[in-house]
Amino acid sequence: MGIDESVERVIPLPREQVAAYAMDWRHDAEWTQGIREATLTREADGGGFAIGAEVTRTAYFLGKRIDYVLRVAAYDPPGLLDMVSVAGPMPMHVTYTFASHPGGTLARIRVRGDTAGFYRPAAPLMGRKVRSSLVKDLRDLERRLSPSH
Asked: Over 70-95, what HEC string results?
């Protein structure tokens, strides 16, 4: 059994603005649930943040510290950022998409993970927790970008 959770939210701001902020790893800890720190630990072959770059995130999930490394698998701003874990407690795949919408930007986050082995008994709880966190992520992303912030 694995995790496959996806959430979306219309954010009343231009796609380029929402995507530029959300795709910048330096903002991860500001709007992503549980992340306390994010560090670019490997630049892309051409330098900077692009396909092949790796970001190490320190998060807390279910009260436990988790360090994991996500490698950029696809990067096409302002529409897509796709990352796969290359180190961490379980294999996972995180996809961010941003589409123009009459109300601003349709922001989507999808997280897929393999809960085999040690995490298998917790899979249903983890799925609910991931979904709840993703809903909060998009809410916090909108709050961060709102003019009153």
From this structure: EEEEEEECCCEEEEEEEECCCCEEEE
One-letter amino acid of 147: P
Structure tokens at 94: 């995180």
Cis peptide before 77 (omega within 30 of 0): no
d(C-alpha 58, C-alpha 56), whole Å: 7
What does the pLDDT profile of the chain (149 residues) look like in tens digits? 588 999 999 999 999 999 999 999 999 999 998 899 999 999 999 999 999 999 999 987 677 888 999 999 999 999 999 999 999 877 899 999 999 999 999 999 999 987 665 555 666 677 788 889 999 999 999 999 988 76
- As a dihedral over the C-alpha atoms of residue 52, residue 114, residue 34, residue 56, rounded to 10 degrees, the angle is -20
Query: CA of 42: how far to CAs of 8, 9, 21, 47, 71, in Å?
Result: 29, 31, 20, 9, 9
Q: How far is CA 58 from the centre of its chain?
A: 13
